[in-house]
Amino acid sequence: MSTIFSKIIAKEIPADIVYEDELCLAFKDINPTAPMHILLIPKKELLNLSDAEENDQALLGHMMIKTKEIAHSQGFEDYRVVTNNGAGAQQSVFHLHFHIIGGRSLNWPPG
Ligand code: 5GP
């Protein structure tokens, strides 16, 4: 089932887009938890990381490589990439997304 992120991909609802190519889209989180809080999503509708399969390897690799470019474009060298996989892990939007977070000191482990 499509989510609000599909509407953002289709430009049916606005988002502050910071990067886009044929495979993925990155935009600012509407409720940022840090000075930089970007969501990087595939244009392909995958529910979450568990929904990805062998034939998604190139897509996922592409997105991981792009995190650096996206963070650098926002002025940050250090950043965290995290995905919440499933409701029990606090996933609230069921379209795969990687949070790219930075711009403040980050604690570890996350809660
Ligand atoms: P999750 O909890 O699923 O890991 O993360 C979903 C993220 O999507 C949250 O950080 C939330 O603030 C963000 N979000 C939800 N709806 C929208 C929206 O319509 N636009 C944007 N830019 N971010 C959204």
From TrEMBL:
Motif (Histidine triad motif): 95-99
GO MF: kinase activity
Residues annotated as domain HIT: 4-111
Alphabetically ordered keywords of this record: Kinase, Transferase
Domain of life: Bacteria
UniProt cross-references to SUPFAM superfamilies, sorted A to Z: HIT-like
InterPro entries reported in the protein's UniProt record: Histidine_triad_CS, Histidine_triad_HIT, HIT-like, HIT-like_sf
Residues annotated as the enzyme's active site: H97
Protein name listed in UniProt: Protein kinase C inhibitor
Species lineage: Bacteria, Pseudomonadati, Lentisphaerota, Lentisphaeria, Lentisphaerales
